[in-house]
Amino acid sequence: MVAGMAAYVFYWQTEEGRNVAAHKLNAALTKLNSDFGRIQLANRDFANKLSRDNNLIEAITKDDRSAISSLFKGASDARGFAGCLTAIDANGKVIYSSDTPARSGYNLRGKNSAVDYVLNNQDNFIGPTYALTSAQSIALSVMMPLIGSNGQCIGLVAVSQPINEEFLTGEAMKFGLLSEPLNGVDLVLLNLKNTGQIYATPGLLRERPAYLRALAEQGVKAIPNWQESGSWQIGNLFSWFTNLFNKNANIPGLVSGFIKDHRFWQPYNLITAASHSARNASNNGVEIIGVILASTPLSSPGIKPGFVILASCIMGLAAIFSIVALSTQLSAQPDGPILALIERVKKWRSDKHLPPGKKFSGAWQN
Protein backbone atom coordinates (compact mmCIF):
# COMPACT_ATOMS: atom_id res chain seq x y z
CA MET A 1 0.00 0.00 0.00
CA VAL A 2 2.83 2.38 0.89
CA ALA A 3 4.69 1.51 -2.30
CA GLY A 4 1.49 1.96 -4.29
CA MET A 5 0.87 5.37 -2.74
CA ALA A 6 4.43 6.51 -3.50
CA ALA A 7 4.18 5.25 -7.08
CA TYR A 8 0.87 7.04 -7.59
CA VAL A 9 2.17 10.34 -6.21
CA PHE A 10 5.26 10.18 -8.41
CA TYR A 11 3.09 9.32 -11.42
CA TRP A 12 0.74 12.19 -10.64
CA GLN A 13 3.73 14.52 -10.22
CA THR A 14 5.11 13.52 -13.64
CA GLU A 15 1.74 13.90 -15.35
CA GLU A 16 1.16 17.29 -13.73
CA GLY A 17 4.55 18.51 -14.92
CA ARG A 18 3.88 17.13 -18.38
CA ASN A 19 0.48 18.82 -18.59
CA VAL A 20 1.90 22.18 -17.51
CA ALA A 21 4.70 21.91 -20.08
CA ALA A 22 2.32 20.76 -22.85
CA HIS A 23 -0.02 23.69 -22.15
CA LYS A 24 2.90 26.13 -22.33
CA LEU A 25 4.22 24.71 -25.61
CA ASN A 26 0.72 24.65 -27.09
CA ALA A 27 0.42 28.37 -26.39
CA ALA A 28 3.91 29.00 -27.80
CA LEU A 29 3.28 27.05 -31.02
CA THR A 30 -0.11 28.72 -31.44
CA LYS A 31 1.74 32.05 -31.30
CA LEU A 32 4.38 30.76 -33.75
CA ASN A 33 1.68 29.54 -36.15
CA SER A 34 -0.01 32.94 -35.91
CA ASP A 35 3.31 34.67 -36.66
CA PHE A 36 3.79 32.44 -39.71
CA GLY A 37 0.43 33.59 -41.01
CA ARG A 38 1.25 37.25 -40.36
CA ILE A 39 4.63 36.91 -42.09
CA GLN A 40 3.06 35.29 -45.13
CA LEU A 41 0.47 38.05 -45.42
CA ALA A 42 3.27 40.63 -45.46
CA ASN A 43 5.26 38.52 -47.94
CA ARG A 44 2.23 38.26 -50.22
CA ASP A 45 1.72 42.02 -50.18
CA PHE A 46 5.40 42.60 -50.99
CA ALA A 47 5.48 39.96 -53.75
CA ASN A 48 2.34 41.42 -55.31
CA LYS A 49 3.97 44.84 -55.46
CA LEU A 50 7.18 43.47 -56.99
CA SER A 51 5.30 41.37 -59.56
CA ARG A 52 3.73 44.58 -60.92
CA ASP A 53 7.00 46.50 -61.13
CA ASN A 54 7.66 47.00 -64.85
CA ASN A 55 11.29 47.91 -64.17
CA LEU A 56 11.84 44.56 -62.44
CA ILE A 57 10.06 42.69 -65.25
CA GLU A 58 12.29 44.41 -67.81
CA ALA A 59 15.47 43.67 -65.78
CA ILE A 60 14.58 39.97 -65.52
CA THR A 61 13.74 39.83 -69.24
CA LYS A 62 17.20 41.24 -70.01
CA ASP A 63 18.88 39.04 -67.36
CA ASP A 64 20.27 42.26 -65.84
CA ARG A 65 21.56 41.15 -62.43
CA SER A 66 22.87 44.60 -61.50
CA ALA A 67 19.47 46.24 -62.11
CA ILE A 68 17.66 43.46 -60.22
CA SER A 69 20.03 43.86 -57.26
CA SER A 70 19.43 47.60 -57.15
CA LEU A 71 15.65 47.23 -57.41
CA PHE A 72 15.59 44.56 -54.69
CA LYS A 73 17.72 46.66 -52.34
CA GLY A 74 15.62 49.77 -52.80
CA ALA A 75 12.34 47.89 -52.28
CA SER A 76 13.66 46.04 -49.19
CA ASP A 77 15.02 49.21 -47.58
CA ALA A 78 11.73 51.02 -48.18
CA ARG A 79 9.79 48.29 -46.37
CA GLY A 80 12.39 47.42 -43.73
CA PHE A 81 12.36 43.88 -45.11
CA ALA A 82 15.00 41.58 -43.61
CA GLY A 83 14.23 38.45 -45.60
CA CYS A 84 15.34 37.21 -48.98
CA LEU A 85 14.25 38.18 -52.53
CA THR A 86 14.80 35.85 -55.49
CA ALA A 87 14.33 36.38 -59.23
CA ILE A 88 13.86 33.30 -61.41
CA ASP A 89 13.40 33.25 -65.20
CA ALA A 90 10.81 31.31 -67.22
CA ASN A 91 13.11 28.29 -67.49
CA GLY A 92 13.51 28.01 -63.71
CA LYS A 93 17.03 29.48 -63.66
CA VAL A 94 17.92 31.63 -60.63
CA ILE A 95 19.07 35.00 -61.96
CA TYR A 96 19.61 36.72 -58.64
CA SER A 97 18.99 36.09 -54.93
CA SER A 98 19.66 38.64 -52.22
CA ASP A 99 20.89 36.06 -49.67
CA THR A 100 23.54 34.59 -52.01
CA PRO A 101 24.15 37.38 -54.56
CA ALA A 102 27.44 35.91 -55.77
CA ARG A 103 25.81 32.70 -56.96
CA SER A 104 23.38 32.40 -59.87
CA GLY A 105 22.60 30.35 -62.95
CA TYR A 106 21.52 27.14 -61.22
CA ASN A 107 18.21 25.69 -62.32
CA LEU A 108 15.30 24.73 -60.06
CA ARG A 109 13.03 23.25 -62.75
CA GLY A 110 12.01 19.74 -61.71
CA LYS A 111 13.82 20.18 -58.39
CA ASN A 112 11.48 22.53 -56.58
CA SER A 113 7.74 21.81 -56.65
CA ALA A 114 6.78 25.39 -55.77
CA VAL A 115 8.77 26.83 -58.67
CA ASP A 116 7.28 24.25 -61.04
CA TYR A 117 3.77 25.06 -59.84
CA VAL A 118 4.10 28.81 -60.39
CA LEU A 119 5.69 28.51 -63.85
CA ASN A 120 3.36 25.75 -65.06
CA ASN A 121 0.13 27.33 -63.82
CA GLN A 122 1.06 31.04 -63.76
CA ASP A 123 -0.44 31.07 -60.29
CA ASN A 124 0.74 32.18 -56.85
CA PHE A 125 2.35 29.87 -54.30
CA ILE A 126 2.24 30.46 -50.53
CA GLY A 127 3.92 28.09 -48.07
CA PRO A 128 7.16 26.70 -46.65
CA THR A 129 9.90 26.12 -49.25
CA TYR A 130 13.29 24.46 -49.33
CA ALA A 131 16.44 25.42 -51.28
CA LEU A 132 15.12 28.32 -53.32
CA THR A 133 18.71 29.54 -53.22
CA SER A 134 22.15 27.98 -52.84
CA ALA A 135 21.90 28.52 -49.07
CA GLN A 136 19.69 25.36 -49.05
CA SER A 137 17.55 26.79 -46.26
CA ILE A 138 13.91 26.37 -45.27
CA ALA A 139 11.85 29.52 -45.60
CA LEU A 140 8.32 30.90 -45.49
CA SER A 141 7.82 31.99 -49.09
CA VAL A 142 5.38 33.65 -51.43
CA MET A 143 6.01 33.31 -55.19
CA MET A 144 4.20 35.17 -57.92
CA PRO A 145 4.55 34.89 -61.71
CA LEU A 146 5.87 37.83 -63.72
CA ILE A 147 3.89 38.58 -66.87
CA GLY A 148 5.68 40.43 -69.70
CA SER A 149 4.25 43.00 -72.08
CA ASN A 150 3.34 40.21 -74.52
CA GLY A 151 1.20 38.48 -71.91
CA GLN A 152 3.67 35.62 -71.48
CA CYS A 153 5.18 34.48 -68.18
CA ILE A 154 8.82 35.61 -68.14
CA GLY A 155 9.65 34.22 -64.71
CA LEU A 156 8.73 34.68 -61.07
CA VAL A 157 9.68 36.63 -57.97
CA ALA A 158 9.93 35.01 -54.54
CA VAL A 159 9.71 36.80 -51.20
CA SER A 160 11.00 34.63 -48.37
CA GLN A 161 11.64 34.70 -44.64
CA PRO A 162 14.36 32.12 -43.88
CA ILE A 163 13.78 30.04 -40.76
CA ASN A 164 17.21 30.10 -39.15
CA GLU A 165 18.79 30.56 -35.74
CA GLU A 166 18.21 34.32 -35.78
CA PHE A 167 14.53 33.87 -36.62
CA LEU A 168 13.99 31.18 -33.96
CA THR A 169 15.75 33.29 -31.32
CA GLY A 170 13.51 36.24 -32.13
CA GLU A 171 10.39 34.10 -31.80
CA ALA A 172 11.55 32.66 -28.45
CA MET A 173 12.14 36.20 -27.15
CA LYS A 174 8.63 37.21 -28.23
CA PHE A 175 7.17 34.40 -26.12
CA GLY A 176 8.56 36.06 -23.00
CA LEU A 177 7.04 39.43 -23.94
CA LEU A 178 3.43 38.24 -24.21
CA SER A 179 0.77 39.55 -21.83
CA GLU A 180 1.01 36.11 -20.21
CA PRO A 181 4.75 35.44 -20.63
CA LEU A 182 5.89 32.02 -21.83
CA ASN A 183 9.36 31.86 -20.35
CA GLY A 184 11.79 28.99 -20.78
CA VAL A 185 10.60 27.96 -24.26
CA ASP A 186 13.33 26.98 -26.73
CA LEU A 187 13.11 26.06 -30.40
CA VAL A 188 15.04 23.69 -32.68
CA LEU A 189 14.77 23.40 -36.48
CA LEU A 190 15.67 20.15 -38.25
CA ASN A 191 16.05 20.28 -42.04
CA LEU A 192 14.88 16.99 -43.59
CA LYS A 193 16.43 17.81 -46.96
CA ASN A 194 19.77 18.89 -45.55
CA THR A 195 20.35 16.62 -42.54
CA GLY A 196 23.44 18.53 -41.44
CA GLN A 197 21.43 21.73 -41.01
CA ILE A 198 20.13 22.22 -37.46
CA TYR A 199 19.35 25.49 -35.70
CA ALA A 200 18.66 25.98 -31.98
CA THR A 201 17.93 28.92 -29.70
CA PRO A 202 20.64 30.12 -27.26
CA GLY A 203 19.02 28.58 -24.17
CA LEU A 204 19.40 25.06 -25.53
CA LEU A 205 22.88 25.76 -26.88
CA ARG A 206 24.00 26.83 -23.41
CA GLU A 207 22.37 23.87 -21.67
CA ARG A 208 23.42 21.33 -24.35
CA PRO A 209 21.17 18.45 -23.24
CA ALA A 210 22.12 14.99 -24.45
CA TYR A 211 19.02 14.83 -26.64
CA LEU A 212 20.14 17.93 -28.57
CA ARG A 213 23.34 16.08 -29.47
CA ALA A 214 21.24 13.10 -30.59
CA LEU A 215 19.21 15.41 -32.85
CA ALA A 216 22.40 16.85 -34.33
CA GLU A 217 23.76 13.37 -35.06
CA GLN A 218 20.61 11.50 -36.09
CA GLY A 219 18.27 14.26 -37.28
CA VAL A 220 14.57 13.42 -37.30
CA LYS A 221 15.32 9.74 -36.66
CA ALA A 222 15.95 10.74 -33.03
CA ILE A 223 12.29 11.79 -32.70
CA PRO A 224 10.25 8.97 -31.07
CA ASN A 225 7.94 7.15 -33.51
CA TRP A 226 9.19 9.23 -36.42
CA GLN A 227 7.74 8.24 -39.80
CA GLU A 228 8.74 9.37 -43.25
CA SER A 229 6.12 11.42 -45.08
CA GLY A 230 3.56 9.14 -46.69
CA SER A 231 4.52 5.98 -44.80
CA TRP A 232 1.90 4.08 -42.81
CA GLN A 233 2.53 2.19 -39.63
CA ILE A 234 0.22 0.79 -36.96
CA GLY A 235 1.25 3.75 -34.80
CA ASN A 236 -0.67 6.02 -37.17
CA LEU A 237 -3.93 4.49 -35.97
CA PHE A 238 -3.16 5.27 -32.33
CA SER A 239 -1.88 8.77 -33.20
CA TRP A 240 -5.07 9.47 -35.15
CA PHE A 241 -7.23 8.21 -32.28
CA THR A 242 -5.22 10.25 -29.73
CA ASN A 243 -5.59 13.41 -31.82
CA LEU A 244 -9.39 13.11 -31.62
CA PHE A 245 -9.01 14.11 -27.96
CA ASN A 246 -5.91 16.31 -28.43
CA LYS A 247 -6.63 20.00 -27.95
CA ASN A 248 -3.42 20.75 -29.92
CA ALA A 249 -4.65 18.87 -32.99
CA ASN A 250 -6.12 22.06 -34.50
CA ILE A 251 -2.61 23.42 -35.15
CA PRO A 252 -1.50 22.20 -38.61
CA GLY A 253 1.58 19.98 -38.46
CA LEU A 254 1.47 19.39 -34.70
CA VAL A 255 2.10 15.83 -33.50
CA SER A 256 2.34 14.12 -30.11
CA GLY A 257 4.91 15.46 -27.66
CA PHE A 258 7.37 13.45 -25.57
CA ILE A 259 9.81 13.70 -22.63
CA LYS A 260 13.61 13.64 -22.98
CA ASP A 261 16.29 14.91 -20.59
CA HIS A 262 13.64 16.10 -18.10
CA ARG A 263 12.22 18.34 -20.84
CA PHE A 264 8.98 18.20 -22.76
CA TRP A 265 9.42 18.35 -26.57
CA GLN A 266 6.65 19.18 -29.03
CA PRO A 267 7.27 18.57 -32.78
CA TYR A 268 5.73 20.90 -35.36
CA ASN A 269 6.05 19.64 -38.95
CA LEU A 270 6.65 22.06 -41.82
CA ILE A 271 4.60 20.72 -44.72
CA THR A 272 4.72 21.80 -48.35
CA ALA A 273 3.80 20.52 -51.80
CA ALA A 274 5.81 17.40 -52.66
CA SER A 275 8.46 17.58 -55.37
CA HIS A 276 7.96 15.40 -58.44
CA SER A 277 10.41 12.77 -57.16
CA ALA A 278 8.73 12.62 -53.71
CA ARG A 279 5.14 12.62 -54.95
CA ASN A 280 3.18 9.38 -54.50
CA ALA A 281 -0.34 8.17 -53.82
CA SER A 282 0.15 7.80 -50.08
CA ASN A 283 1.35 11.32 -49.25
CA ASN A 284 -1.51 13.21 -50.99
CA GLY A 285 0.99 15.35 -52.87
CA VAL A 286 2.60 16.89 -49.79
CA GLU A 287 5.83 16.25 -47.91
CA ILE A 288 7.51 17.29 -44.68
CA ILE A 289 10.59 19.41 -45.36
CA GLY A 290 11.46 20.29 -41.78
CA VAL A 291 10.49 19.90 -38.14
CA ILE A 292 10.44 22.60 -35.48
CA LEU A 293 10.78 21.21 -31.95
CA ALA A 294 9.52 23.42 -29.13
CA SER A 295 10.96 22.48 -25.74
CA THR A 296 10.64 23.53 -22.10
CA PRO A 297 11.88 22.06 -18.80
CA LEU A 298 9.42 19.91 -16.85
CA SER A 299 8.17 21.53 -13.67
CA SER A 300 6.62 19.96 -10.55
CA PRO A 301 4.40 22.68 -9.05
CA GLY A 302 3.47 22.13 -5.41
CA ILE A 303 4.98 18.65 -5.07
CA LYS A 304 8.25 17.97 -3.24
CA PRO A 305 10.03 14.70 -2.41
CA GLY A 306 9.36 15.41 1.29
CA PHE A 307 5.64 15.48 0.58
CA VAL A 308 5.83 12.09 -1.09
CA ILE A 309 7.69 10.61 1.90
CA LEU A 310 5.32 12.20 4.43
CA ALA A 311 2.21 11.05 2.53
CA SER A 312 3.61 7.53 2.27
CA CYS A 313 4.39 7.43 6.02
CA ILE A 314 0.91 8.67 6.94
CA MET A 315 -0.73 6.11 4.69
CA GLY A 316 1.52 3.38 6.11
CA LEU A 317 0.69 4.28 9.72
CA ALA A 318 -3.00 4.47 8.88
CA ALA A 319 -2.81 1.02 7.35
CA ILE A 320 -1.04 -0.39 10.44
CA PHE A 321 -3.57 1.14 12.87
CA SER A 322 -6.44 -0.14 10.73
CA ILE A 323 -5.06 -3.67 10.74
CA VAL A 324 -4.45 -3.62 14.53
CA ALA A 325 -7.94 -2.27 15.28
CA LEU A 326 -9.60 -4.72 12.93
CA SER A 327 -7.71 -7.71 14.31
CA THR A 328 -8.55 -6.68 17.90
CA GLN A 329 -12.21 -6.34 17.05
CA LEU A 330 -12.31 -9.66 15.27
CA SER A 331 -10.53 -11.48 18.09
CA ALA A 332 -12.82 -9.96 20.77
CA GLN A 333 -16.09 -10.29 18.91
CA PRO A 334 -16.78 -14.06 19.40
CA ASP A 335 -15.97 -14.19 23.19
CA GLY A 336 -19.46 -13.26 24.49
CA PRO A 337 -21.48 -15.68 22.36
CA ILE A 338 -19.03 -18.55 22.89
CA LEU A 339 -19.16 -18.15 26.72
CA ALA A 340 -22.96 -18.05 26.56
CA LEU A 341 -22.93 -21.22 24.46
CA ILE A 342 -20.72 -22.98 26.98
CA GLU A 343 -23.07 -21.90 29.78
CA ARG A 344 -26.07 -23.33 27.87
CA VAL A 345 -24.32 -26.68 27.36
CA LYS A 346 -23.60 -26.90 31.11
CA LYS A 347 -27.22 -26.04 31.90
CA TRP A 348 -28.46 -28.68 29.49
CA ARG A 349 -26.24 -31.34 31.02
CA SER A 350 -27.54 -30.59 34.53
CA ASP A 351 -31.23 -29.79 33.81
CA LYS A 352 -31.75 -31.58 30.50
CA HIS A 353 -33.57 -28.43 29.38
CA LEU A 354 -32.27 -25.59 27.18
CA PRO A 355 -33.13 -22.02 28.26
CA PRO A 356 -34.11 -19.50 25.56
CA GLY A 357 -31.13 -17.99 23.71
CA LYS A 358 -31.62 -14.43 24.93
CA LYS A 359 -27.97 -13.51 24.58
CA PHE A 360 -27.79 -14.58 20.93
CA SER A 361 -28.63 -12.83 17.72
CA GLY A 362 -28.35 -13.57 14.05
CA ALA A 363 -26.71 -16.91 13.23
CA TRP A 364 -25.98 -17.53 16.91
CA GLN A 365 -29.74 -17.58 17.71
CA ASN A 366 -30.14 -20.73 15.61
- Shape by Cα distribution: rod-shaped
The mean pLDDT is 81
Helix content: 40-55%
Poorly predicted regions: 8-12, 230-249
Question: Structural class given helices, strands, pairing?
Answer: alpha+beta
Task: Bin the strand percentage.
Answer: 15-25%
Taken in chain order, the helices and strands follow as: HHHEEHEEEHEEHHHEEEHH
**Head-to-tail CA distance between termini:** 40 Å
Largest sheet, described in full? Answer: 5 strands, antiparallel
Tally of contiguous helical segments: 10
Strand order of the largest sheet: 2-1-5-4-3
- C-alpha Rg, in Å? 35 Å
Describe this structure in words.
The protein is an alpha+beta fold. The protein is 45% helix and 19% strand. The protein contains 10 helices and 10 strands. The strands form 2 sheets. Strands 2-1-5-4-3 form a 5-stranded antiparallel β-sheet, with helices on both faces. The protein has a 5-stranded antiparallel β-sheet with strand order 7-6-10-9-8, with helices on both faces. The protein is rod-shaped, with a radius of gyration of 35 Å. The chain starts with a helix and ends in a 15-residue tail after the last helix. Mean pLDDT is 81; it is low at 8-12 and 230-249.
Summarize the structure.
With 366 residues, this protein is α+β, with helices and mostly antiparallel strands.
Give a topology summary.
Layout: H1 2-51, H2 54-61, H3 65-79, E1 84-89, E2 94-97, H4 113-121, E3 125-130, E4 138-147, E5 153-162, H5 165-175, E6 186-191, E7 198-200, H6 202-207, H7 210-218, H8 234-243, E8 258-260, E9 263-273, E10 286-297, H9 305-332, H10 335-351
Antiparallel strand pairs: 1-2, 1-5, 3-4, 4-5, 6-7, 6-10, 8-9, 9-10
Helix pairs in contact: 1-9, 2-3
